[in-house]
Amino acid sequence: xxxxxxxxxxxxxxxxxxxxxxxxxxxxxxxxxxxxxxxxxxxxxxxxxxxxxxxxxxxxxxxxxxxxxxxxxxx
Length: 75
Ligand code: HEM
Prior knowledge:
mainly alpha
């Protein structure tokens, strides 16, 4: 499992917000090499929130909150 507290350090002191959004959501990621082991959270949250247009807005908020949290735990 990757260490999510060293993302900024590993990116040369840059917090990769947009990349994280894509990785966590996962719905638009094409896996060219190997398999993705992490659940596709964009899909999981969308189902959990009712699988409609309103759910899509909640997915955006949930993922934004997760990214804020991950940013807050950077070493
Ligand atoms: C909602 C909670 C989670 C968030 C926000 C999250 C976030 C992330 C991020 C940002 C990465 C990329 C890290 C990097 O590139 O260094 C990653 C990779 C990964 N995560 Fe998660 N993760 C979560 C939960 C989980 C869970 C529950 C599992 C296990 C079932 C998991 C398994 C993995 C694995 C195996 C990778 C390596 C890439 C891959 O094989 O797909 N994650 N995660």
